[in-house]
Amino acid sequence: MPERTAVVASASGLHARPAAIFAEAASELDVEVTIAMAGEPEDEAMDASSILSLMTLGAANGDTVVLRAEGPGAEEALDKLAALVETDLDAE
C-alpha cells in the first residue's frame, strides 16, 4: 500500500480549520485514505476524510503523520494530501 509521511505545518495542527480543509480534500478523492501519527501501527490509522478523526488524531504543528491509500490514483491522492499537510492552512 502506498504511503507518504508529512510534517504538519499549520500552527494549530490538524485541528478546526486545517482539519476541515484536509477532510474535504480527502473526501473528494476516488480512493480511501487513512492517516496516523508516525510510529503508530497501521491498524490504528483513521479515516482521513473524517474531520472528527483528524481532530481526535491530535496532530500538532511539527508532528509527522503517515498517509496511506490503495487503488487507482493512490499515488496522486497521497501527493496532493501530503502537500496540504505541509501547507500552513491557518494562513490560507
Summarize the helices and strands and which ones pair or pack.
Blueprint: E1 3-7, H1 17-27, E2 33-37, E3 46-47, H2 51-57, E4 64-69, H3 74-85
Antiparallel strand pairs: 1-4, 2-3, 2-4
Helix pairs in contact: 1-3
Could you walk me through the main structural features you see in this protein, from its secondary elements to its overall organization?
- It is built from three helices and four strands.
- The protein has 92 residues and is of the alpha+beta class.
- A four-stranded antiparallel β-sheet has the order 1-4-2-3, covered by helices on one side.
- Helix 1 packs antiparallel against helix 3.
- The longest helix is centred in the last third of the chain and has 12 residues, at 74-85.
- The radius of gyration is 11 Å and the shape is globular.
- The relative contact order is 0.34.
- The model has no long low-confidence stretch (mean pLDDT 95).
Summary?
The chain has 92 residues and is α+β, with helices and mostly antiparallel strands. It is 33% helix and 20% strand.
Keywords:
92 residues, alpha+beta, four-stranded antiparallel beta sheet, 4 strands, 33% helix, globular
- Please provide the ordered H/E string of secondary-structure elements: EHEEHEH
3D shape: globular
- Note the total helix count: 3
Rg, please? Answer: 11 Å
